[in-house]
Amino acid sequence: MLPKVTIIIPFFNDKYVPIAIQSALDQTYPNIEVIVVDDGSTQEVDKIQPYLDHITYLRKENGGTATALNHGIEHATGEYVAWLSSDDMFLPHKIQAQMDYMIASNSSVSFSNYHLMDKDNQVFIPWCGKRFNPYNNAKEVYESFRVENPVNGCTTLIRKDIFDKVGVFNPGFLYTHDYDMWFRILLNGFHMHYIDQALIQFRSHEESGTSRFQPQILHEMKTIEEHYRPILHDYLEKYAVF
Asked: Boundaries of each Glycosyltransferase 2-like domain copy (predicted)?
């Protein structure tokens, strides 16, 4: 049997959640489970009701996206974990494309490119992410983290046992817990492999956290970069991982 993939959807008062859930259920990869983690929502919960027979629904007190992801990871039964924000959507072949690549290359972490869509699900910037050489790009990815974060968290697919080695998402970072995680993955010697396909649609809208909390996001990013980039520099110089 093919390895199981758990798709975790953190949810908090988001009207777009049915689109996210349906895109997870519509995956062409046959062995998936979908976990929706309700992070103490007070609105839009009724939109999940039609899907309850097809998903695992977990409700917890509000604690932020990192805590919701960690709760989902704790309950995941898959060998691999994907994360889908409740206002974004996976393209139907997202999981299949990554599993094909990761099994063939024996890799533990992969990510892809993505399209930017608006509030009406219309793509207005295709291939929005940074692109790398389609082959042997692990070194490029490491080097990229010296100056930027090239990874959209919802494009990732990660072997679940990675979290046993690097730890789970840090709830101290309300908005950039993913950025912190990527550094920990890289510094533990796990290459993040880029797949040159656009496999999700990432939503840009006025209600998104990315739009509403820019000052906080920038502050957290600065904290992470000041801590990890010198360590990354020394790691790359010392171990010459490539």
From this structure: 6-166
